[in-house]
Amino acid sequence: MFRPNMRVYVSLLIVFSCPTLVPHLVCANSATKADEPLVASKPTLPVVRRISSLIDEQIRKGTKDYAKLASPVCSDAEFVRRVYLDLTGRIPTVTQTRAFLDDSHPDKRATLVDQLLESPEYARHISQRLDVMLMERLRKKYINVTLWEEYLRDAVAENKHLDQLVREILAADGSGKGQQAEARFYLARDGDVNELTRDISRIFLGADLTCAQCHDHPEVADWKQDHYYGISAFLVRSFVFTDKKKKQTVFAEKAEGEVKFESVFEVRDKTSKGPETTLPVVFNGPKVDEPAFKKGEEYKVKPAKDVRPIPKYSRRAQLGDALTSSQNRRFARTMANRLWAMVMGRGIVHPLDADHSDNPPSHPELLELLTDEFTASGYDLKWYLRELVLSKTYQRSSSNELFASKSDQELSDAQFAHAILKPLTPEQFSRSVLEATGQAEVYRQSLKDKLSEAALRKNLVGYERQFVSLFGGLPGEPVEGFETTADQILYLSNNGSIQGILSPRSGNTADRVLKIPADQPEQIAEELYLSVLSRRPDATETQEVAELLAGKTGTARNDMVIDLVWALMMSSEFRFNH
Amino acid sequence: MRCNYACGSHDSLSRRSFLGGTAAGALSMLGFQGMTQATAAKQLAAQQKQVVVFWLSGGVSQLETWDPKPGTETGGPFLSIPTSAPGVHISELLPYTAQQMHHLALVRGINTKENNHAKGAYIMQTGRKEQPGFAFPYLGSTFSHHLAPPNSPLPGYISVGAGGSSAESTFLGPRHAPLVLSGGRAPNNLGRHDALSEERDLLRRKLRSQVSQRFEQKRKTAHTEVYNESFDQAAALMSRSDIFDFSKFSDKDLERYGKHDFGRHCLMARQLIEKGVTFVKVGHTNYDTHSENFNFHIEQLGEFDRPFATFISDLYDRGLLEHTLIICMCEFGRTPRINSRIGRDHWGSAWSIALGGAGIKGGAVSGKTNETGTKVIDREVNGGHLFHTYYQAVGLDSTEEFYPNGQPIAKADPKTEPIKEILA
């Protein structure tokens, strides 16, 4: 029903409805600008096409009885927490939450989204998500990690097209002055052809070809040994080279070298007498032909001892183009799906690296639509994320009255009929703990005029590292899904640094709560809940807080407030983005 | 280990029914503090079966350990030596172990047909081939589930110097996930913070649990349940932090076990078994000897042999061996063919493991490989046979089923059966 030409119609509609949006944007901004130095004041996103409603349409079509099964659209409180976490990597401050909840403008959700997309924290957060996706928390090897992180952050800040970003990364050999950071993708993996083949196929093509190294994939009919070696062939001539004079390590390349493979199970082709080979090729795309050179004329710089060879023709240089070419739909599809999963909590193809015909997408037409539109947008990350979070699908509540009565099948996450609980990433968790305790606010106040995202981050990064080391999984095997260990809980329960930031100090949460007179338990409960859980408490919760604090003074009251902050912060409600 | 295909997020309900009830909550966990630990430990020692796995990661060579072929083209340079079990010879690289052979049985006919580290490790630790759509729990989690007393404040599965992931327990839940003592140290942050009294700690955890429960009423997921249970597990650990006090080993013991990480890890394992932990995994690594196989094995087995043998002998002396099953295994063996780098490569087609203690007939040997060790010629077994054997050795019926997701899943591969000839 929604063929690509629908796009034209939809775009027109949006262009016409656009002027009504503009005044709200301006006035909402001026209202929050003064106390929001971290959020840019004037969103200038061009509203090109809207596909949020098409997303909802496809999701609705995907499930019989969708209207009955679907959760209602989430409350403002759910929304403000969720969208801050997804777009900036932390819960909103108490001030931001209050301002949003008290804002009565009907378009405030879209306005907020636009503000967040322009904030420096968006660039930081999304670049961190991309970093984990691309590097899987691999440690430093040859390339300065900070340099790489800044490269990604700048790319997201300027909204570099995602295909362009990937081409830059795959083209980099680390030799040029300006492109050392980009070479981290290859060099952190020590240039290992098998590791790179596996990771490139998994990350960019949604295909875990590991098993196809030794034979056609035994369980996935679509994945052949040729696919594996087609990717390997781009890389087989490359190797890590350390220039002793320059004291620099780069990803160098030779002019010769072919992949050789045969199945460990059986002879693949009865006529073949030995291992086979293939030209570089991305999946079922065209093979990348290469120029022939006379023997002895293959090099610009010939290989010699301690000399980095430079071939006239580089196979590796073709990889980025072949991967992101319009002839390779898998790339756009995988990226559209990965970003969808990042925001929605689950892929349309799931698991993300199992995109094959035995594991069909939950909503095939939707995935086609997203792939088309993401490509048509020029791989515009900001536009795409904006469309996702403005959809009703994203804005459904995670709470569903039916959970008690329906079977798992009927309310499966794959239907996207409710918001899926997403465990906070280590970075989100750490930033949110610092926000909930008010520690971030303490730093903001101490930075005064010098406050910027980068300056604030300097103060917070130490905490983040502790969280990442405990919650982030092993390098190369980062946590997917949700893992929780006793070690993590012991840290959150007993570690001095957590206990330390809970104690009242000027401007933090405990301090603000303790300053509210004891005879105003409603205000106390509200300040607590808004600060930690980004919502106002209900009557039961208010009463609970009142009872716990009743009659307590001095140290006892102090301790009770600290313990309340901790208890709320350790709850499932806080641990998940819901 | 990455989360497998089967990590559906709404498997909590069925898991709940499988476990026979929801997590009891932090408070009930703490109730066990009242029980005297000495009494508890004695009871455990008397009744409970325990399991220790020695995991030689990388894949130890069967030819340099349990199935030597001296004097053949594949045999390598080492001799075989007689052992305390009549008629059983093993490699001369294991002289101390040879003296404990009457406690150990060998399975020499393993063919797992798997030469990939991760997949081999999966087979050996779950008894199955990896399959999309279902994630089997690892044996540490399985035995923690079956053997640990339901109300024990002790963690059921502790991994010492052997890594581990909370994903190993799959549908059995985090209560049976490994507690990893990384670097062989007690867990960090085990002691309550100075600023907190026990009473405050208890109260704030109770509050935490209340807030979570309110939130979860209309949001049914396995994740929140897992998260809540991990708080219980942490509380349990804090209440039994004594099991992690490894400071009191005598100089004599340190000397006997050897002053290296593996020796110390074996001592730690001994203490954990003495204190009643159900399943302990001890790791020793660096057996992936694609080059210089023989030098590596001299070094690695030189370190392994004595503490391993001392551990068995100590458990026997303490009367613990009777109810403790010991398994020494890895992901696969090594190729009989010696490669151009004097190495041996991955070989899942004909290799061996050793096991002993509870339920095992000491000195027994099952299976046989041909003269050059390239093929199993008698009593071929795979991961399934081994799992039936482990289960039966500790007195469990291996033909029963699990019920995750409401569907019956056999505990061990129903196409296989236990290796009866090594069962006591």
What would a concise description of this structure say?
The complex is a heterodimer of chains A (578) and B (424). Chain A has helices spanning 6-32, 52-61, 66-69, 76-88, 94-102, 108-117, 120-135, 145-157, 162-171, 184-187, 193-205, 225-235, 319-324, 329-344, 364-376, 381-390, 426-436, 439-447, 453-471, 486-494, 496-502, 509-515, 521-533, 539-549, 554-569, 572-575, and strands spanning 238-243, 248-253, 299-301, 310-311, 422-423, 473-474, 477-478, 576-577.
Commentary on this structure:
- The complex is a heterodimer of chains A (578) and B (424).
- By secondary structure, chain A is mostly helical.
- Helix content of chain A is 50%, strand content 4%.
- A two-stranded antiparallel sheet of chain A has the order 1-2. Chain A has a two-stranded antiparallel sheet with strand order 3-4.
- In chain A, a hairpin with a 2-residue loop joins strand 6 (473-474) and strand 7.
- In chain A, helix 1 crosses helix 6.
- Chain A is globular and about 90 Å long.
- The two termini of chain A are 32 Å apart.
- Residues 1-37 of chain A have low confidence and may be disordered.
- In chain B, 33% of the residues lie in helices and 14% in strands.
- Chain B is globular and about 70 Å long.
- In chain B, strand 2 (80-82) and strand 3 (89-91) form a beta hairpin.
- Chain B is built from 12 helices and 16 strands.
- Chain B has an 8-stranded mixed sheet, sandwiched between helices. In chain B, strands 2-3 form a two-stranded antiparallel ribbon.
- The two termini of chain B are 34 Å apart.
- In chain B, helix 5 packs parallel to helix 12 (383-393), helix 9 (251-257) packs across helix 10 and helix 10 runs parallel beside helix 11 (293-317).
- Chain B is of the alpha/beta class and 424 residues long.
- Classes of the chains: A mainly alpha (578), B alpha/beta (424).
- At the A-B interface, helix 20, helix 24, helix 25 and helix 26 of A face helix 7 and helix 8 of B.
